[in-house]
Amino acid sequence: MDITAAAFLSMLNNRLVEVILKPLLSLARPRLSKDLLLYMSIITGIGMAFYSNTNLLEQYFDPPIVGVIVTGIIIGGGSNLIHDLFG
Questions:
Q1: Domain range for residue 53?
Q2: Which helix (H) or strand (E) holds 61?
Q3: Beta carbons within 8 Å of 58's beta carbon, 6+ residues apart
């Protein structure tokens, strides 16, 4: 998978968390911690990586599932993380 697709998924994940999940979680829990949003971002990033079958690290991990999970964590970390790692 191309790094551009991962960057796009990362930006999409960021908007999903900020626009949809953050307001929903703040309704349920008014004193929302940043850690909870980070975990939600990582979970949605892993879901996006599985759904799109994105594996940036396929040459490094023999079982492809490990590469997809690590790619999902990278996607959940945001586009700045992708730029720092691969840019």
A1: 3-86
A2: none
A3: 64, 67
Spell out the per-residue pLDDT of the chain, length 87, in tens.
Answer: 567 788 888 888 888 888 888 888 777 776 766 678 888 889 999 999 999 988 888 888 888 899 999 989 988 887 666 656 666
CA dist., res. 8 & res. 14, Å (int): 10
- Is residue 52 within 8 A of residue 80, CB to CB? The reply is no
58: which DSSP letter?
Answer: T
**In total, how many domains does the chain have?**
1
Cα(first)–Cα(last) distance of the chain, in Å?
Answer: 16
Model confidence, pTM: 0.80
In whole angstroms, what separates CA 79 from the centre of its chain?
9
